[in-house]
Automatic annotation (TrEMBL):
Protein's UniProt name: ABC-type glycerol-3-phosphate transport system substrate-binding protein
Signal peptide extent: 1-18
The keyword Signal belongs to this UniProt entry's keyword annotation: yes
Database matches in SUPFAM superfamilies: Periplasmic binding protein-like II
InterPro entries assigned: Bact_solute-bd_prot1, SBP
Keywords: Signal
PROSITE patterns linked: PROKAR_LIPOPROTEIN
PANTHER family: ARABINOSE-BINDING PROTEIN-RELATED (PTHR43649), DIACETYLCHITOBIOSE BINDING PROTEIN DASA (PTHR43649:SF12)
């Protein structure tokens, strides 16, 4: 799991697009304020229409325009909107892990949630104690973001199985493959007994990491950065062994061929052209939007190495997603909407769960979730050790909020890992040399960047990213900083 998991492209765009923080003029239509919201949740368009209609009924002086943009396009469109001073009033951004609020603030994109700067206690108390942390979503005591999705259930690490394809192969989805060997054996049966692919997974661009990190998450905490030893981890023997297993599946013809994006792979699974798809908590809503209901597929945990789990997908303190734009001229209206949106028993919450879109951090998930697949996901995630709290370098070294060393280390070639993984899968070779080259270059850039920042007065060093007492499978509590 990468600390401050920022994509280099996103950070470059953020830096390039940083603007002043003076507000834009107020948008009004016939006496109504027009509040603009942007995100990339294309599957939630109808849900957002219900939300905006209901909100305007309750607040007739505010008209909400909610725009969803395809994810790849969004990462370019939003920075350009800030650059041209045409940003929305509220926007979605989830690239930077615990540094999300700080990076967005440093780049001039956000204001505090509340116009006064201080969110009311009634608002803060909607979340479990400890959800608002200075340096993470509180900056100088002012809330700039709030946890949206929860951090136990939400994330990757789930295996979706097409019930009919499994049954055609003589397999029972209620008894899923639990180890790498069992997965390979199941694929052999699927290949021999059906016309379907065994595993479909996107391998176009950065999406190839969805499959890779699903497997890497159970041997470390992902393939990006080793927080125990303070180093980029793609060349770690456990990670390379994991890649070799995926390569074995690919060579055996168990992974669907072609250069496919996530939409194609998901449709392939829903159409019964593949038996297995690996992804995250958000998938039940995606399947529903495709008319593929939860009685037609089953969910299980990601299979483990034959020798057992040595890592677990990581949990970070919170998952901030929605922010108030620094350019808004409608700060009061933006706060009114976010306050309304986060009422634990409010319209937004009720409709969100009806749509099966996932789990929220400020609502009672046990009470609200009704979708059988999502309930199964929750059951899996509650298994001890399935997901662990990972160390947060920012909490060890608050000056990392002003550091650019890590971002610079990954920004020069932001898609490097996905590029070499795709290339190696396609040519059938090994990842070792290419992974070592990546790690050497990024590690050197990180170390040199931190040294330069330390010389300028920041209290940063490689020690900030190194937690020798972390074992990859045990929660790293907030009391250890």
């Amino acid at each position: 799991m990468k600390p401050a998991a920022a994509t280099g492209l996103a950070l470059l765009l953020l830096t390039a697009a940083a603007c002043g923080t003076s507000g834009s003029s107020q948008n009004t239509t016939g006496g109504q304020i027009t509040l603009k919201i942007w995100d990339f949740s294309m599957e939630q368009v109808e849900f957002h229409k219900k939300v905006t209609d209901q909100f305007t009924r309750e607040h007739p002086n505010i008209k909400v325009e909610w725009r969803s943009i395809a994810q790849a396009e969004y990462k370019t469109t939003l920075p350009l909107a800030f650059q041209s001073r045409q940003s929305p009033d509220i926007f979605y951004w989830s690239e930077n892990g615990p540094l999300n609020s700080r990076i967005l603030l440093n780049n001039g994109w956000i204001k505090p949630l509340h116009p006064s700067g201080t969110a009311p206690d009634e608002f803060i108390k909607r979340w479990p104690q400890g959800s608002f942390i200075e340096g993470v979503n509180l900056i100088d005591g002012k809330a700039h973001g709030f946890p949206f999705t929860d951090n136990l259930y939400w994330g990757g690490g789930y295996m979706f199985m097409h019930n009919d394809v499994f049954k055609q192969a003589g397999l029972d989805p209620a008894s899923p493959p639990r180890t790498f060997s069992e997965l390979k054996a199941a694929c052999a049966k699927i290949r021999s007994a059906t016309k379907a692919e065994c595993i479909t997974s996107p391998n176009k661009g950065a999406d190839v990491m969805r499959l890779f990190d699903s497997f890497a998450g159970v041997v470390m905490n992902g393939s990006g950065f080793d927080l125990k030893n303070g180093r980029f981890s793609l060349d770690d023997p456990k990670i390379l062994s994991t890649f070799n297993f995926i390569q074995e599946l690919n060579k055996a013809g168990y992974i669907a061929p072609g250069t496919n994006d996530k939409n194609f792979s998901r449709q392939q699974f829903a159409a019964g052209q593949a038996a297995i798809y690996f992804d995250g908590t958000w998938m039940p809503s995606v399947w529903t939007s495709q008319g593929f209901t939860s009685d037609k597929y089953s969910v299980a945990a990601q299979p483990l190495p034959d020798a057992g789990r040595t890592g677990a997908p990581g949990r970070e303190p919170n998952l901030e997603k929605y922010f108030v734009s620094s350019q808004t001229g409608n700060h009061d209206a933006a706060w009114t909407f976010l306050d309304w949106m986060t009422k634990p028993d409010g319209f937004f919450v009720q409709e969100y769960y009806k749509g099966g879109f996932g789990t929220l951090s400020y609502a009672d998930n046990k009470k609200m979730v009704t979708d059988p697949a999502l309930r199964k996901i929750m059951e899996i995630a509650e298994t001890p050790g399935f997901r662990v709290n990972i160390p947060v370098p920012l909490l060890k070294c608050p000056d990392l909020a002003r550091s650019k060393a890590y971002q610079s280390a990954i920004s020069k070639r932001p898609d490097w890992a996905s590029e070499i993984i795709t290339e190696t899968l396609n040519n059938g070779g090994t990842l070792d040399a290419a992974a070592k080259e990546l790690v050497t270059a990024r590690q050197s850039a990180l170390e040199e960047g931190l040294k330069a920042e330390a010389a300028s007065g920041l209290k940063v060093s490689m020690d900030c990213y190194t937690f020798p007492d972390f074992d990859y499978v045990t929660d790293y509590g907030l009391d250890r900083y």
